[in-house]
Structure formats: C-alpha cells, structure tokens
Amino acid sequence: MKELHEKIIQDGKVLSNDVLKVDAFLNHQIDPPLMQAIGEEFAARFKEDGITKILTIESSGIAPAMMTGLIIGTPVVFARKKKSLTMSDHLFTSSVHSFTKKETNEISVSKDFLQKGDKVLLMDDFLANGQAVLGLLDIIEQAEAELVGVGIVIEKGFQPGGAMIREKGIRVESLAIIQSLEDGKVTFANGESNE
Amino acid sequence: MKELHEKIIQDGKVLSNDVLKVDAFLNHQIDPPLMQAIGEEFAARFKEDGITKILTIESSGIAPAMMTGLIIGTPVVFARKKKSLTMSDHLFTSSVHSFTKKETNEISVSKDFLQKGDKVLLMDDFLANGQAVLGLLDIIEQAEAELVGVGIVIEKGFQPGGAMIREKGIRVESLAIIQSLEDGKVTFANGESNE
C-alpha cells in the first residue's frame, strides 16, 4: 500500500536491525486519515468474504480495525490483555508471549461477542513472531467461529510469524511487508526502500 | 446524545449500583457507526476551539478519540499504561489509580507528540473518579500544552470525578451523564431512564 510505505519511510524510525518504531502514526500517536485509508484497503481486500466480525487485540490494533469495521459494516472486538474485575468467567482465554516486552499476557474475549457462525477477520498492527495471531486463532477456534483471513498493517517479513501463519493455509494480507531493516534502512518486500 | 442514551439503555448492563457494563459497544466490542456518531458530536462541540491534538489513554479511549480526530482533522495520541521497551526515556509520565481494577498504572506520553503550543482535547470513554483525567492533565501541564476541554463518552454523575474536574474551571463535555444505577435501572441526568 503506497500511502503506508511512504509514511513508514517518512516517519518510521529504524532503531536496530529488528526494531522499527512507528509510534508517530500507528501505535502511540495515530494518524486518523491514514487509518481511514488502511480501513479502505482492508475493506477492498476482504469485501467479498462475508465477514461478520473483526477480532483484534488492544491497543494498537484498535484504530485500523475500527476503521475497517466502519467501512465493511461489522462490529470490532478487541481481546483484552488482562482480565478486568468487571468481566465474568464467561470468557475465551489464551496466552500471548511478547518478545518485545519480554512478558506473557493472558488474553481474553467475552463469549458474548464471538460465536459459532461468525466469519472473522483477524487484524493486528504488526506481524513479527506471530504470537498474538496464534493466541487470537486459538480463541477463534474455541468459539468455533470461522477464520476468513488475517489483516496486518506492517509485517516484518524477516521474522518468522508470516511464514508460520501462511503455512497453516491461512490467508494473510499485509499492507506493508518489510524485508530488511539492515543498516538503518527500510527495505520493503516489493523492493522499495528509503534510499 | 440521544443515540448514545438509546444504546446504553438497549445494550448496557447494570451490574450493581456502581457498575455499568458497556462492553457490547464501547470497551470490548466496538460499534463503529456509534463511534462515528460520537466523533461527530465531539467535533460539533469543539470545532471552534482550534484543537491541534487529541489526548486519550489506552485502550477504550482510542476508538472515540480516533473518530473525533478524523472529523476535526487532528492527530490522536494515546497515553500508554506501561513503558514499552522500545520507548526511550523521552517521556512525560504520571500515575493513575484505577478503583475498578484496584491497581495503579504509570502512564506515559512521548515528548515527541505533545508540545508547548498544542491545544489539547482530552478524551476518555468513562469519567467516574476522574483519576485518568487527572493523570492526563498532569501530562498536559508537564508538556506546557494548553488544555481546551475534556470530552467524555459516559460520565457517572454520581461519582466525584466530574465535579472535581469542573471545579478546576475545566470545560467537561459528557455525551451521556448517568445520575443513578440504582435498582438495576439507568437514570440519566436529564431524567431519561430505561423504564
């Protein structure tokens, strides 16, 4: 997605060969018109698939998922990373390890909002090691809902998550795939870079 | 805001005299068209105020803040509840106690995204004891930014946060003010109820 590639090149910061910081527009400060364009792109890619629900995870998945849900006309559910005291035991739960934050979180989704018969688009801001996607897939399976595909804003193609999910036969649509962050330079899988 | 009142009456669940669960449309499952209507309402209320930035806090503030930012044309920054390892020390921080979750979180905002000269609309999904608003006000003050006002989706008028913030001379716009949850019944400050 051209607009996203340009934004990554303009405002992304390469902190190391592994870490791309996009907190200027995606996961700390949010650029609403970019989120709208991202929503339109996901809606175009998944519009024929009869999606009934979008499932994402707090916090950075919420903005792109909400814009996609607004355009395709479905509710959005965000998995919680910790049980809230106002939630009951009426939950699907799974575990997600974050290599970045070096911690494992329990994630949960209320049984009220994901059910058998739902056709689910799973969305997240980043796909790197794929742990969050695995946790959400587990929850979709527990709910006996149907996974339609996975929509990712930025995939780090040099980390194993994307290949691992695709090897399961799952459709993964990533709007930007980063091939390398070496030498402080963003190179996209389609060959674009910031030089 | 009529549409929000109706949604609260239709899908909100009164769990006790203090607790209203709105996870069907606001803080677990999100209703995107309602978020758009909420964004339009905040935009109408604050459109003359020259806002340059919306500040909210993860996670449930993100959806209404993003729609408001899209309509009024400003970026949205969401305070993080815990330091991420990919963030530097380049942060404004404050503490927020949650009575619901019985925990105190450090919240932080990067100095890159809130600055002197910013005219800030502070937004959150709920206003009850006002602790999150106080933490965000502290961060706005540290940044020497200018607070324009506070936009709240649902204010629990029977808890002290709203009065405490207004007593500071701060403009608070709440789209729904709940006067009471007694006897399992939602009564709004304007006299509407679910009976």
Automatic annotation (TrEMBL), chains A, B:
Binding site for xanthine: L20, N27, K156
NCBIfam families linked: PRK09219.1, XPRTase
Pfam families: Pribosyltran (PF00156)
Record PANTHER family: HYPOXANTHINE/GUANINE PHOSPHORIBOSYLTRANSFERASE, XANTHINE PHOSPHORIBOSYLTRANSFERASE
Compartments where located: Cytoplasm
Reactions it catalyzes: XMP + diphosphate = xanthine + 5-phospho-alpha-D-ribose 1-diphosphate
Enzyme Commission number(s) from the entry: 2.4.2.22
InterPro entries: PRTase-like, PRTase_dom, Pur/Pyrimidine_PRTase, Xanthine_PRibTrfase
Entry keywords, A to Z: Cytoplasm, Glycosyltransferase, Purine salvage, Transferase
Gene assigned in the entry: xpt
Domain Phosphoribosyltransferase: 35-157
Protein residues bound to 5-phospho-alpha-D-ribose 1-diphosphate: A128, N129, G130, Q131, A132
Protein's UniProt name: Xanthine phosphoribosyltransferase
Family the UniProt entry places it in: Belongs to the purine/pyrimidine phosphoribosyltransferase family. Xpt subfamily.
